[in-house]
Amino acid sequence: MPDFLEIFFPVVYNRTQEPGISANYCKYDNQGLQLFTSSLYLAGLTATFFASYTTRKLGRRLTMLIAGILFIIGVVLNAAAQNLAMLIIGRILLGCGVGFANQGVPLFLSEIAPTKIRGGLNILFQLNVTIGILFAELVNYSTVKIEGGWGWRLSLGLAGIPATLLTLGALLVVDTPNSLIERGHLEEGKAVLRRIRGTDKIEAEFLELVEASRVAKLVKHPFRNLIQRRNRPQLVIAVALQIFQQFTGINAIMFYAPVLFDTLGFGNDAALYSAVVTGAVNVLSTMVSIYSVDKVGRRALLLEAGVQMFFSQLVIGIILGIKVKDHSDSLSKGFAILVVILVCTFVSSFAWSWGPLGWLIPSEIFPLETRSVGQSVTVCVNLLFTFLIAQAFLSMLCHLKYGIFLFFSGWVLIMSIFTLFLLPETKNVPIEEMTERVWKKHWFWKRFMDDGEDEVVIFTNGTDDSEKKDYSNGFDPASQL
Predict the structure, then answer these.
(1) Residue 255 pLDDT level (bands cut at 50, 70, 90)
(2) 3.30.110.70, 3.30.70.2190, 3.30.420.40, 1.20.1250.20: which CATH number matches 2-13+23-437?
(3) Do residues 125 and 109 make contact, with C-beta atoms less than 8 angstroms apart?
(4) CA-to-CA distance for 287 and 350, rounded, in angstroms?
(5) Does the keyword Transmembrane apply (predicted)?
């Protein structure tokens, strides 16, 4: 918004007001502006390490509550910002909220969900993210016309509504049975499991959770355990999915959709309107994923979307390369509409594949003893590469120009090949049976399951000395009751 840029980023504001500027791709290229966007993700990256501790020691519910409180404080600071420092501090607190929310919510959903609908229920997390994006675009579209400098304050302040809902929601829900049992609240965990399953026939699942918790407690150094050979497939998959998710180019498009369309000659109002359209497509397509993920599977959605995203970005790059040059060129109406259609095609394919599945798959592949720390690494890697893309995108747009879409399409090709050969299907597989039914049967990853597959490493007295014991036989989980 011009009023916002004039106060906090006057250099960018002055550049956007110059007629005939010779840098059609470069007028928003400013490290300070990029840092405002990306500082949220850098803060989230740091916060996720603390969130890993709270998730494990205090539970999933309290982690989500902390996220809501951080969001509310950040919103207040941003809406009332008088200078850039106040704005950045508020943004950092919002980032900390993102770190805690991304740590707690996917784990919460995966652990309360019955196996048959785990994928769809977990994707509700991503659906609500896309609904949030759409509301943000609608708010921006409505408030940009408010004069007197109140438009951007109202825009940032309205983020307090979902922040408050998250806080209240965290106060109302119960913690997961997995978390309660992991922290020693066995009877409470059993009662919650009975409540969320809606039946008294939960003994087998309960004993399975007790056994998984017992094994998890034997691991005194979860980060060290995470990098052991038998956990390497899950770690590689989780890290790769987060890197690939960001290198689809989706955040480049969603963060800067108004800037992108304005750069292409749409003008401020049309740019925001086009961004609203992409936001709506994002929401509707995520609903497609909720319906299909537990029917057609994770791999099919990722592979189909890879083809769709690759050709969408390739054609966008070709059109911009031919029609938009360095100067004040703009697209004709026909080509502009075609670019919007192609962007929507790209967004839709991402929204039913790499968007939700990038969070779903890591949340369901780790065993309990490394699940919390595995989710922490997942969030950390995601936020790290989100930060890198957010910080670099406007400069990349300036220097690569239309080539930025060719750059991202190349990455889509690479990640599709990775999915085809190295990503196993996890549809309808109970979380606690992943090792036996997925990893030990995969043509490549099974080799990592052969060495010490039934052993648990115990680090005693906080030292590096370790002893290995076989706990695969002779244990009755009911004895823990």
Answers:
(1) low
(2) 1.20.1250.20
(3) yes
(4) 12
(5) yes
